Amino acid sequence: MKLRKVDFYLDWPVSIKIINLRRFIKGNLAKKGEVIRWSIVDIKDSVDSSDIKKIRINAVLVNPVNS
Amino acid sequence: MPISPTLFIIPTGIGCEIGGFAGDALPSAKLLAAASGCLITHPNVMNGGSLSEKNKDIFYVEGYSLDRFAKGEIGLKSVKQQKIGIIFDSSIEHELLTKHLQVADACVATLGIDVDSYVLTKKPLGIVIDSESQGISDGLIENPDTLIEAGEILIEKGITAIAIVAKFPDDLDLIKTNSYREGKGVDPIGGVEAVISHLISKFLKVPCAHAPALNPIELNENIDPRAASEEIGYTFLPSVLIGLSKAPDLIELTDKNSNITLHPSEIEYVVVPSGALGGEAVLACIERNVNIISVQNKNLLSIDNHFLKYPKLIEVNNYFEAAGLILAMREGISPRSIQRPLNKIQELNFINQKF
């Protein structure tokens, strides 16, 4: 078993309602590995689109993909 | 008066003014427990190094399991007492290990806690500390398998709750460490501690908590009172053993044979620092339409309701207000009736009605 820390920005489209945000993030994290710990550490408006917010995710994964 | 089960969350390692040090949110937890009649919180709130308390109205649940509770995956079952086992990192030196074993014996002899046995990991856990993410405490362990393997040995022997003691490097950044001790910085090891206990919760599904093993460092005469509970002993193990001694069992909701004391559907409130709304438990409670009380408690994050726009969120200035709000609603008193100005009730008409 290996652990890896990941830190990345994810586009949060307005079509994803707040009640679905957690599952949206977990779905994206699942592509990278099994999650041990995660949280949103920053949110900002996108400079490119008013329909998107940029959310920064900090996570620790186990058995990360491509490790 | 019926209880109002409340989740009380102060994330580890984000530098909260209250709760970012050594059990310094415990008085707030006791206040919220008195107001709600039932508080579910995690070791970062309750553990003050050598100091902690048992409280019949507080459920002590490790962060990963607390998230699972918030997601509706597990229920909590009260117990009379847990049978505790301890995992010691094999890189702990003999003298420091002896001190920890004496603490465990003392908790049996003086507090009546059932600490049954311990195991040394086959390999060192290999702590790697990292705090690059905006100053947030973070890190990993190099050998997670050896941690899980040690935990499995304890569970095979009938242990029902696990304390973990990992050796942290002696060459911790002294400037950062002293900044934390003086109340000006972030707990440099909190992030790794969370990873260690989350691993046990995820893979072994038992109550657990972590205490770091650290060799004594130089006397500092400017210790902040909030960090002082970590200066009064050789180990941080007592608070972990006290917390785990009556931590609730974690019941998978698919297990129909177990009685559950507290079901996740009973959660009425989440109390969380303002700016720290981006954790899994809070987002899971938003899915479940739970009331969120966001408390001014300065920290490094700025994930607030400006971005989330959750309608059932109330912002308050401090934990006194949070407790008063919970107590008012628990008593069936509209918070609006206590605030001024008090507006007249609104007339609705059919033109403005939206479905």
Structure in words:
The complex is a heterodimer of chains A (67) and B (355). With 67 residues, chain A is of the alpha+beta class. Chain A has one domain: Defensin A-like. Chain A has one helix at 18-30; strands spanning 3-13, 34-45, 52-62. A three-stranded antiparallel beta sheet of chain A has the order 1-3-2, with helices on one face. The longest helix of chain A is centred in the middle third of the chain and has 13 residues, at 18-30. The radius of gyration of chain A is 13 Å and the shape is elongated. Chain B is α/β, with parallel strands linked by helices. Helices cover 31% and strands 18% of the residues of chain B. In chain B, the strands form four sheets. Chain B has a six-stranded parallel beta sheet, with helices on both faces. In chain B, helix 4 (94-111) runs parallel beside helix 8 (237-245). Classes of the chains: A alpha+beta (67), B alpha/beta (355). The interface between A and B is medium-sized, with 26 and 34 residues.
Q: In order across it, which strands form the biggest sheet of chain A?
A: 1-3-2
What percentage of the residues of chain B does DSSP assign to strands (E)?
Answer: 15-25%
Per CATH, the architecture of chain A is 2-Layer Sandwich
Number of beta-strand segments of chain B:
14
Largest sheet of chain B: 6 strands, parallel
Helix and strand sequence of chain B: EHEHEHEEHEEEHEHHEHEEHEHEH
Total beta strands of chain A: 3
Assign a percent range to the helix content of chain A.
10-25%
What oligomeric state is this? heterodimer
- Integer-rounded radius of gyration of chain B: 21 Å
User: How are the strands of the largest sheet of chain B arranged?
Assistant: 3-2-1-12-13-14
One letter per element, helices H and strands E, the order of chain A comes to EHEE
The largest inter-chain interface, given as chain pair and residues per side, is: A-B, 26 and 34 residues
Strand content of chain A: over 45%
What sort of overall outline of chain A do the alpha carbons produce when their principal axes are compared? Answer: elongated
Structural class based on helices, strands and sheet pairing of chain B: alpha/beta
Nearest-integer average pLDDT of chain B: 94
Treating each run of at least 4 consecutive H or I residues as one helix, how many helices of chain B? 11
Q: Give the number of domains of chain A.
A: 1
Low-confidence stretches of chain A: none
